[in-house]
Amino acid sequence: MNNFRNDVLSWDSYFMLTALTIATRSKDPKTQVGSCIVDNNHQILSLGYNGMPVGIKDNDENWNDETKHNLVIHSEANAILHCKHSVNNSTLYVTLFPCNECAKLIITSGIKKVVYLKIKDSKNILTNISMKMFDEAGVIYEKYKEVNKEFIFKI
Q1: What is the pLDDT of residues 4-43, one digit of tens each?
Q2: Which of 48, 59, 102, 124 is most buried, taking the most CB atoms under 10 A from its CB?
Q3: Do strands 113-118 and 91-96 pair parallel, antiparallel, or not at all (unpaired)?
Q4: Catalytic residue among 66, 76, 136, 142
């Protein structure tokens, strides 16, 4: 009997789908970002999405472009901050390539691999700084290899 199932999600797809799902918690009207930190045993250590710090109102005024960039905590930072365990040698699945500030946190926290869904602007100087920092620190980063599957959830 053949027990192989080709309809089972790969681990990469499972964790990227988890990051995409958690991104929907963000109230950012333009860019919802999600992160999922996973250990070497495929256990989810933490999740995060881009949002306001605790105690800061999620009102329209704080989400305008001029204000939000000074207030928002990025998904990667939220996932690291809210993790109850060490993230050393873990993998971060994120829906948007990390900015330079998040790259610093990723490197310092000990995350060793970043799998991202997309890059906002590959020619952006801050994106290039993130890549250079990752290269120097030995953090592997790779684009998620999309699988053409359709997901239908009935809630």
Answers
A1: 556 678 999 999 999 999 999 999 999 999 999 999 999 9
A2: 48
A3: parallel
A4: 76
